[in-house]
Design a protein that fits this description.
The protein has 327 residues and is of the alpha+beta class. It has 2 domains: 142 residues, no CATH class; 115 residues, no CATH class. It contains 7 helices and 10 strands. Strands 8-9-6-7-10 form a 5-stranded mixed sheet, sandwiched between helices. Strands 4-3-5 form a 3-stranded antiparallel sheet, with no helix packed on it. The protein has a two-stranded antiparallel sheet with strand order 1-2. The longest helix is centred in the last third of the chain and has 18 residues. The chain is globular and about 65 Å long. The two termini are 21 Å apart. The structure holds zinc ion (ZN) (2 copies). The site of one zinc ion (ZN) has 8 residues, from strand 4.
């Protein structure tokens, strides 16, 4: 019998609180500034990896986007934000149609505090049902009330509530590569990449990878529109080789550590994301500090000067996560 929770977040046996996250998120949450609160949670997931507290807040906040935004909501969460791959481990995906939603049952069960707004443990009108033994899940549209038997072969469970996370195996699965990054190059064709899109593309292509101190660049793809993807990829790789020669990427980056991820950005066209992992030794393996964005013709949008690639100075207290595993 196959289980349907392979991509889900499983809370560790012992809760390790992240009090600084609670402190930071509670205020914007209580003031209805949900988008700001969710950005804080996303930053925590990107920089420190998965934790029960981060997923508790993610679920609490994302549930609010599934309900009507009340007049008291100062900053509703944009719908697209729900599909960020960092939130996939706490989503539940319909096995039939791949629609996904967030349920409050699991993540809130272990916490003493119930969310004041949005969440709640009521299951009066569930968005879907789930097999209580294998987590096979169906959304409300795909569920036949007359038949509660689990469709999974050899499973004799029944469909009902509570509904626990399954992750999003059919949607865009969270990337399970976990190595440290050195450089990301995004090639665009018609519409330049702005900061918000660049962050989203890096989330998508580099989920759970350590991006401390990396450079994210975007440039126009100089391959002709009719040249096809092979030529577009080649153009990107030529640029990676160029940055390697210029010392912006350490040795062997082009030949040994770069992969190409094509991503369709809705309404903005195709983006090619060239991700270069950091080498296992040398200065680039110890990059730290904020991500630097060098977007299109923008000079340097977010540079505090402390994160020159290759300086190798690890900031004090910065946790290193080498080949961190998701589960
Ligand atoms: Zn469905
Ligand atoms: Zn089942």
């Amino acid at each position: 019998m196959a289980r349907h929770d392979g991509e889900a977040f499983h809370a560790p046996a012992h809760h390790e609180p992240v009090p600084e996250l609670d402190d930071a998120v509670r205020r914007p949450h209580d003031e209805g500034r949900y988008a700001t609160a969710l950005d804080l949670v996303l930053r925590q997931l990107r920089e420190e990896g998965p934790s029960e507290d981060a997923f508790f807040w993610a679920t609490t906040l994302l549930i609010t986007t599934q309900r009507a935004a009340g007049p008291g909501v100062a900053e509703p969460i944009p719908l697209e934000r729900r599909s960020n791959p960092y939130f996939a481990p706490v989503a539940t995906e319909c096995a039939a149609c791949a629609r996904f939603w967030f349920s409050s049952h699991d993540i809130h069960a272990g916490r003493r505090m119930a969310p004041r707004a949005g969440g709640g443990l009521s299951v009066a009108n569930p968005l879907g049902v789930q097999c209580q033994s294998c987590r096979y899940s169906l959304c409300r549209a795909c569920y036949d009330l007359a038949d509660v038997r689990c469709p999974e072969p050899d499973c004799d469970g029944t469909l009902g509530v509570p509904v626990l996370p399954t992750g999003r195996p059919q949607g865009c699965p969270a990337n399970s590569f976990t190595e440290k990054l050195e450089h990301v190059l995004i090639l665009w064709r018609d519409v330049p990449v702005d900061r918000e899109e660049a962050e989203f593309l890096v989330d998508l292509a580099c989920t759970w990878q350590d991006r401390a101190g990396i450079v994210v660049r975007s440039q126009v793809n100089q391959a002709g529109p009719g040249d096809g993807e092979t030529m577009e990829r080649r153009m990107g790789l030529v640029l990676v080789g160029l940055y390697e020669r210029l010392g912006q990427i350490s040795e062997g980056g082009l030949m040994e550590r770069t992969r190409v991820v094509p991503i369709m950005s809705p309404g903005l066209g195709k983006r090619l994301v060239l991700v270069t992992a950091a080498p296992e030794t040398g200065p680039a393996s110890r990059l730290s500090g904020p991500v630097r964005y060098l977007l299109s013709d923008e000079e340097d949008s977010e540079n505090d000067g402390s994160a020159e690639p290759g300086n190798g100075g690890a900031a004090p207290g910065r946790r290193r996560r080498w080949f961190r595993r998701r589960r």
